[in-house]
Design brief:
Elements lengths: L12 E6 L5 H11 L4 E19 L4 E7 L3 E13 L2 E11 L5 E21 L6 E4 L4 E4 L7
Antiparallel strand pairs: 1-6, 2-3, 2-4, 2-6, 4-5, 5-6, 7-8
Length: about 150
């Protein structure tokens, strides 16, 4: 376990409302790039016309895709934004409710917004750095390279 205290009175909160047909990750990523976000928390509610979530297969070091080819409610969407090799990196997980009452969840790979997605992005005063870990197959937040 590792931790780092991050505190400051200087925080910003963004509210993004995605339109029907937009890809959720593209919309959040555009905000992150436009505002040059390097540390933020993400929460959202809304719905998708269709989506794909992923389950990380540690042996394959890749996500197994779980397609959802029906309208689904975004019951929970949480994640973060950190600075990666190519700029701000969006990492979100979602729990999606189906018409049957069943749920699907995992790492959000794509989500076609319908009718809306209401996203709250709370910026932190820190800069969080992601470092690639080839032995795992993921880029993870590296507290040693992050600054408060």
């Amino acid at each position: 376990m590792s931790w780092k205290l991050i505190e400051s009175a200087k925080t910003r909160t963004y509210v993004l409302v995605a339109d029907p047909g937009e890809d959720a990750l593209e919309a959040i990523g555009a905000l992150a790039r436009d505002e040059k976000l390097s540390a933020a928390q993400i929460t959202a509610v809304g719905a998708f016309a269709r989506a794909t979530v992923g389950w990380f297969d540690r042996d394959a070091k890749d996500y197994r895709k779980i397609p959802i080819e029906e309208q689904c409610e975004v019951l929970s969407l949480v994640g973060d934004i950190a600075h990666g090799e190519d700029g701000p990196t969006v990492h979100v997980h979602a729990v999606l409710g189906l018409r049957s009452g069943e749920v699907r969840g995992g790492h959000l790979l794509e989500g076609e917004v319908w009718p809306t997605l209401e996203v709250v992005v709370r910026e932190s005063p820190a800069e969080l750095q992601k470092t690639d870990h080839p032995e795992i197959g993921l880029a993870l937040i590296d507290l040693a390279r992050s600054s408060a």
